[in-house]
Design goal:
The protein is α/β, with parallel strands linked by helices. It contains 20 helices and 28 strands. The chain is 30% helix and 18% strand. Strands 11-18-17-16-12-15 form a six-stranded mixed sheet, sandwiched between helices. Strands 4-3-2-1-10 form a five-stranded parallel sheet. The longest helix has 29 residues. The structure holds alpha-D-glucopyranose (GLC).
């Protein structure tokens, strides 16, 4: 059958399937009582393995549409049995869980996965996570979190996909595809949930749940695009943010939940509130009581109440009183039923655990290893210290509180992660030293000194032993950073330097003269300027997950090469935050000519002695490491940047090509990045915007031409009327290995 008729048949099947779903929705709605409708909009918390009489009663009475945090498959099936076989209409439950970066096998935190710049790897990781979770009765995950994170003080940057809308959008789409699979009705597929809609990452001072003031233009050009990309990938649900957006909290924000999501984007799934975010409308000061909160949230477009019990308590009475139209409740219920029908829950409500492996198969650990290897970012490597050349190393000192922490290496949001599967860096290095890695005098001797009780410890009683071990070794490998509890929801830091006495430990090791490799595990970018000149090599590993040990050991000893690139800009000091690549220029951008550090100001200097430009007197105005930056064990050169054609119409396309050469001695992977700037526009535009990227593997000495299509639509931005516009004029482009790349060219957009 010719392709066109196959695609026609396929399209016909999809249409028929969708029409069948809509017929079933209408049939159910016609038979549902008002209370049963409200029940579908009510999500309750599970009891970790138990079916209480109260929960059984509520399910049987049709008062519950969804349960979260129940992952005992027998309990899930029993609750499902009550819903399907004992409630009047037999509507199955939807069981949700935060399956954020793995389930029992844990992948790097999402920010670490973002550092891979590898959508296919991210998709595979989400698929693996879905299969492990589905075996426990989960069919809905509250992921991907697609909030743009530009303030590393915020604990939840750990869960986000970085500072850039283009990168975050590509990775969010990949996660949705992984979680939802080819077919949402596949028993191993989970409904995904784009969260937290919207602007949550812009909380003032990097404090979680804090106020956000985001002009609509910024909302539409920075914070909304990744959500739109997730929708483009077919995301089944959205979650409303806790945060107050310009005075109207997201959970009652009609502009977000109805105008953008429904009217502009045509989303037909459902929106769930965040945990009790509906009753929190009273705490925000938007509503006087739960009844008002329920009315505000429902009329704004939030369909399901996550454990707030507000819809359960007040929605029916609001309808009876005439304050809320039952037709709106019907629309809300239809959205929930639509997702349940698309998941195939009516046909297959019960989880068949025998369909799923009891224990994670080796392929899951192999994937977790790959993800951990590709997420690590090499930030410094003086004299090519890494990979460690074993012919000169007889002994290694492994130092630090994160070298042997099976749980900590998993990071935040690991409800179901099993630390029993973890292989730690110390274990992996020990295996390498015992098995394969030999120095000049035979197997490498490894000595471990924890040095500090935790990453937060101020006690320095362990430092003398650290110094003694480092001084006696040929190389010191430090495993420092943040325990997992220092990032994640509600865990923000006002100072993002290394906590506790870790900087002191680094200084003490430096003083021994032994070469120092610093491996950092953390849930956010850290301010590392104070220690950068005290280490010879720096590998930033995020929280790498279950296979942290083998991945880091192989990277350190050269069995693998680092290929991670920063998904967030790294500040020198906390005071630079927020600092990110896609900033606007200001009227007085800092330059080498205008910048004067305060230490260089003459005595009695006046306010006019420093250049009048946008910088701090006590810190250089550049980041410590730019967005997109990362080293590897070879070097790459870019040349012959070309843009064809030189002029394009406002609906045209140019192709940007560059020659990439591996100029080093080892094979390697480069992440080629395409940035643009619209230097003159009706509203000011960022000085750099990422518009394309590609991981390119090249053998030593090889060259390749890399080409990016750049359609005019990719250059659209919200004009003064908030409508997307492509304006004629010059467009500058750069291609290189990070946001500061200098290899540039330009082309012209011409008016039609
Ligand atoms: C939380 C989080 C949200 C999560 C939900 C369920 O408070 O903000 O991301 O999915 O509760 O655990």
């Amino acid at each position: 059958m010719p392709d066109s008729s196959v695609s026609t048949t396929r399209a016909g099947e999809i249409t028929e399937r969708r029409e069948r779903v809509e017929r079933r929705i209408r049939d159910l709605l016609d038979r549902m009582t008002l209370d049963e409708k409200v029940g579908q909009l009510n999500q309750v918390n599970g009891h970790d393995g138990g079916v209480t009489d109260e929960l059984a009663h509520r399910v049987r009475a049709g008062e519950v549409g969804s349960i979260l945090n129940e992952v005992d498959v027998r309990t899930v099936n029993e609750l499902q049995r009550i819903a399907v076989e004992e409630s009047r209409l037999g509507i199955p439950l939807l069981v949700g869980r935060d399956v954020i970066h793995g389930f029992r096998t844990i992948l790097p935190i999402p920010l670490g996965q973002a550092a891979t710049w590898d959508p296919e790897l991210v998709r595979r990781g989400a698929r693996m996570s879905a299969l492990e979770a589905a075996g426990h009765g989960v069919r809905w995950t509250f992921a991907p979190m697609v909030d743009i994170g530009r303030d590393p003080r915020w604990g939840r940057v750990a869960e986000c996909l970085g500072e850039d809308p283009h990168l975050a959008g590509a990775l969010a789409s990949a996660m949705v595809q992984g979680f939802q699979g080819e077919d949402l009705a596949d028993p191993g597929s989970l409904a995904a949930c784009a969260k937290h809609f919207a602007g949550y990452g812009a909380g003032e001072a990097g404090r979680d749940y804090n106020t956000t003031n985001i002009p609509e233009g910024e909302l539409r050009s920075v914070h909304l695009p990744p959500f739109r990309a997730a929708l483009g990938a077919g995301v089944a649900t959205f979650m409303a943010s806790f945060s107050d957006l310009n005075g109207i909290p997201a959970s009652a924000n009609r502009f977000l939940m109805t105008q953008v999501l429904r009217e502009e984007w045509g989303f037909d799934g459902f929106v769930v509130s965040d945990w009790e975010s509906i009753p929190q409308l009273c705490i925000h000061g938007l509503t006087a009581d739960d009844r008002e909160a329920g009315l505000a949230a429902a009329t704004a477009g939030v369909d399901m109440d996550m454990v707030g019990e507000v819809y359960a308590d007040h929605l029916a009475e609001l309808v009876v009183e005439g304050a809320l139209h039952e037709a709106l409740v019907d629309v809300m219920v239809a959205r929930v039923l639509r997702v349940k029908l698309r998941l195939g829950l009516f046909e297959r409500p019960y989880t068949e655990p025998e369909r799923f492996p009891v224990e994670p198969p080796p392929s899951h650990f192999a994937l977790a290893y790959d993800a951990a290897v590709r997420s690590a970012v090499l930030l410094k490597n003086d004299e090519g210290l890494l990979p460690l050349a074993m012919d000169g190393i007889g002994s290694i000192a492994v130092i630090g509180p994160l070298a042997q922490e099976p749980q900590e290496q998993l990071g935040t949001w690991v409800f179901d992660g099993d630390p029993g599967f973890s292989i730690t860096p110390l274990e992996a290095i020990g295996v390498l030293a015992a098995e394969g890695v030999h120095g000049p005098t035979g197997p490498v001797k490894v000595r471990y000194v924890r040095g500090l009780e935790t990453t937060r410890s101020e006690d320095r009683w362990g430092l003398p032993e650290v110094v003694e071990a480092a001084g006696a070794a040929d190389v010191a490998l430090l495993f420092l950073g943040e325990e997992s509890v220092l990032s994640g929801e509600g865990h923000c830091r006002s100072d993002i330097s290394l906590p506790g006495a870790q900087e002191a430990l680094i200084r003490a090791v430096r003083a021994t003269g032994t070469p120092v490799v610093l491996v950092v595990m953390a849930g956010r970018p850290l301010a590392l300027e104070a220690v950068l000149d005290k280490v010879d090599a720096l590998l930033f590993a995020w929280h790498p997950g279950t296979m942290a040990g083998p991945a880091l050991a192989d990277l350190l000893f050269g069995r693998a090469a680092p290929s991670g690139r920063l998904p967030m800009t790294f500040p020198r000091v906390t005071g630079q935050v927020p600092i990110y690549h896609a900033h606007r220029n200001t009227g007085r951008p800092p330059t080498p000519e205008t910048f004067v550090h305060m230490r260089d100001l003459p005595r009695g200097a006046s306010q006019f002695s420093a250049g009048a430009a946008s910088y701090h007197l006590d810190t250089h105005y550049t980041p410590l490491f730019p967005f997109g930056f990362g080293l590897t064990y070879t070097t790459f050169a870019y040349s012959d940047l070309q843009v064809t054609p030189a002029r394009m119409a406002t609906d045209g396309e140019v192709r940007v090509s560059v020659t990439l050469e591996n100029t080093g001695e080892r094979d390697g992977v480069e992440v080629v990045q395409l940035y643009v700037r619209d230097p003159v526009a009706s509203v000011t535009r960022p000085v750099r915007e990422l518009k394309g990227f590609r991981r390119v593997a090249l053998e030593a000495g090889a060259r390749r031409t890399v080409t990016f299509p750049l359609p005019a639509a990719a250059l659209a931005f919200p004009g003064r009327d908030m409508q997307p516009v492509v304006e004629p004029g010059e467009i500058q482009v750069w291609v290189g290995g990070d946001a500061h790349t200098a290899l540039g060219a330009a082309f012209e957009i011409v008016a039609p």
